[in-house]
Amino acid sequence: MSQLSAASIAVVVALVAGCAHEVDASVPSCEAVGAASEAATAADRRLLGLASEYPADGMLAARREELLGSERARRAAAWEVVARVLAPVSLAEASPVADAAVPRFRTWYDSEDFARVFHAAYEALGPDGRAARARPGDAALDAAFDGNLHTLDALGWTEEQWSAYVAMLADGQDVANVGGLGRIAMSPRAVRHVALSYPEILRCLAEGAPPRFVDGPPEASQRLAHEHVALSHCERRDLGPFWVASGGRLRAQLAPGGGSALATVRLLAGETTASATERCTVTGEDACESEGPGAFFVEVTAGGLAVDAALDVTYDAPDVPFAGCLDGVFPLGAATVAEEWRRVELGPLPTYDTSASGLARRLQDGSDDTWGDGDASADPGPDEIYTQRVAEGATFRLAGMHIRTRELEHWMNITIWWTDRPDEDFGADRPDAIRALGGPWSHYAMCVAIDDIERDPDPQGGFGDDMPTLGAALGAVREHAGSGGASWCSNPYVDAAPGLARTNCVGCHQHAMTGVRPGEVVMDEASYPESGRLFVRSNFPADGFWGLDAGDGLAAEIMSTVDYWDSAAP
What we know:
29% helix, 6-stranded antiparallel beta sheet, Jelly Rolls, alpha+beta, 4-stranded antiparallel beta sheet
């Protein structure tokens, strides 16, 4: 396979910098990740070697119902994911430091790695393949990944220069510096899937994302809510909104007994209860049904007797293209991280109170839903917080990190953050596998979300007896969401924008490659209820991966590369 020369790399990079397409790579994702970043150099990539594959747990999907219904089981699985992401991986090249290793995620690919890989793989298609928008074959992609390791050759490095570079690695901190000040990193499977999906990405850039609701035949029914409804004579309760796709059907029904025979159940369609129109009305215990698309509210009104009964809301979902802007959903081994670094020289690190009382104060009605500037401050050293020193000499601390792995339908959405009270609340259940990784990693707390709705019936997630600080913190979050309400998982350092203190990652990531900007998701309550936490789509065009149209803007990178070769074609 022919390799891009250093000159052609420079030309393509220049085109990327001047890209005039509508994809805006400067717009942050729902994570308000800090601006500090320094990409891995070509020398770093040679030291790191090919990125370490994420060893995904193929059994997690079979445990989906268990994980949905148990915060305790979910957190245990999430800590195992964290341990796999942080596991030490040896450097690919020998160095003066014995047993030199970095956490697995530090070997993963950044946007510049992706650019080099995609440029080489697309060039290898040849004129006919590029004209046909053919996908790169495995051999071409393997060669492109291998070529990425040898970028130093294109830059003219000699073996003497390489030996001098390696000799500068004197201790563990020097090893930790390898890889640059990363902001977004992707596992090999994630990068490969994006590269293979370039035809779909180009189509979505040209034609727009699929509509919010997509037609299709109905599948098996799923229960959206099971609510206890207690109403006095003539009292009314509204539930929703519930989002229904075209071809989908919503059904609401009161269980027999408890005065339900005289109650009225109505389905209303509309963005708000004030503007909604009636679709179905029944009295008693019959099912009230209506087809989508749209947002629906369920209204229950007591009749001549008080009502004390259960209400089930179920949904027949359509079979829709789940990731219309990709070549199918990401594979099992796909994983990404978003890192937030804070510069040491700018002063102490702000710390955040994530105890029950701290969360209750921050999430109370009338608050601005932000984490703010911190509740206190600390000055942790490298033995307490993962630390990075960049080439210019500045030192940064890893304050927090989002981790997403495609082991479940809506990903494992995990976030970790540094805390000055590491063994309380969201760090109380930290397992020995994390402690064994070394000092810094024992100072990070963790939360996880795998669905937009919290389905554990215990407000304290099963931790009330043996880990009361964690149980109380979970209970404080649940108090503001309600039973069966939107799930919660937020990082004080990463989720810094207004509204994100209430976030859960899942609701926000559904909008990747839809044209919706993150600020709209968290601030427009009418269109994106519960601060953007609830699903309002029947399809997720980018399978929840913001790296295409926000953050690193990989879609713009793809389009610029394709435009370059199209313009060079005879």
